[in-house]
Q: What sequence folds into this?
């Protein structure tokens, strides 16, 4: 008879080891998000030009609002497109 210690699995047991989300702005100590830095703002935009939500980026609510405002200002000045096909 097999004991619990002798029990072997063909595949490893799935263990939820999710990485903890963190706000990159709080971690780096960034207080101001520059709307003129289009390359940095592209990290928060998907291929179609839409803003990525907080649940994907891990950004805190305070800085997500600042990111969205910076993206809107960059779009208004023409630094970022409003709509794009395969932006990245």
A:
């Amino acid at each position: 008879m097999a004991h619990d210690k002798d029990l072997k699995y063909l595949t490893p047991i799935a263990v939820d080891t999710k990485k903890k989300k963190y706000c990159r702005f709080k971690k780096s100590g960034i207080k101001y998000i520059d709307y003129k830095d289009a390359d940095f703002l592209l990290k928060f935009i998907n291929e179609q030009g839409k803003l990525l939500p907080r649940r994907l980026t891990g950004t805190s609510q305070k800085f997500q609002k600042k990111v969205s405002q910076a993206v809107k200002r960059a779009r208004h000045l023409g630094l970022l497109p409003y709509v794009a096909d395969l932006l990245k």
